[in-house]
Design goal:
Number of strands: 8
Radius of gyration: 18 Å
Strand order of the largest sheet: 1-8-3-6
Number of helices: 9
Order of helices and strands: HHEEEEEEHEEHHHHHH
Largest sheet: 4 strands, antiparallel
Shape: globular
Structural class: alpha+beta
Strand content: 15-25%
């Protein structure tokens, strides 16, 4: 079992990852963070909800998905140290079509958008952190879109193993297949072939 982190630890982790901060800025960032616990299978955000916060995953595994033509499509799989949000709903303040579900018992820390923006007005390093989190989210979205558009099934799986090793180790295979837009059978063949390589 991993050690339990305090809100201060998470503030430090976010600062280390996204922006350097003074002691005072760390205090402010810590005051913004809201700890959340989710049990396996719990819905974090449902279709029709408005996304009002960015979630940092401390421990756990979550998936973001939507329904289309009676099919479930996995859009994102996030694991320890990852960020998850429904970016369009967050900024337009409109109901989301995306849903977020905990695939493991998870401990997350919410960064409520309104509060984050209030403190970012007066703190350049918190502004930088906010911008870098959004940049990372957009890049991940683009990487996924390009993976599905341009790569063969074999290469999609290889890239995912390289970019998201923890997700590949822990996520159920049907969700990995869905995320890579292939059938579980294709994923099974691709995985067998990559073991031979």
């Amino acid at each position: 079992m991993r050690e339990i982190h305090t809100t201060r630890d998470i503030a430090r982790e976010l600062a280390r990852k996204y922006s350097t901060m003074t002691h005072d800025e760390l205090d402010i960032l810590e005051s913004v963070l809201v700890p959340r616990k989710y049990t396996k299978g719990q819905m974090i955000l449902s279709e029709g909800d408005i996304c009002r916060e960015i979630l940092y995953i401390d421990i756990g595994l979550v998936r973001q998905f939507y329904e289309k033509n009676d099919r479930i499509v996995t859009e994102h799989l996030g694991v320890d140290g990852g960020i998850v949000m429904c970016i369009e709903s967050l900024f337009r303040e409109e109901p989301t079509k995306l849903q977020i579900e905990a695939l493991e018992n998870s401990i997350c820390y919410a960064l409520p958008k309104q509060r984050l923006e209030e403190v970012a007005l007066h703190n350049v390093n918190i502004q930088i952190l906010y911008r870098k989190i959004l940049e990372e989210s957009l890049i991940l979205s683009q990487v996924h879109a390009d993976l599905v558009r341009f790569e063969t099934a074999q290469n999609r799986y290889k890239r995912m193993c390289k970019l998201m090793p923890k997700v590949v180790q822990r996520a159920p295979l049907n969700y990995i297949a869905n995320y890579l837009q292939m059938t579980p059978e294709t994923l099974s063949r691709v995985r067998s072939a990559s073991l031979i390589d």
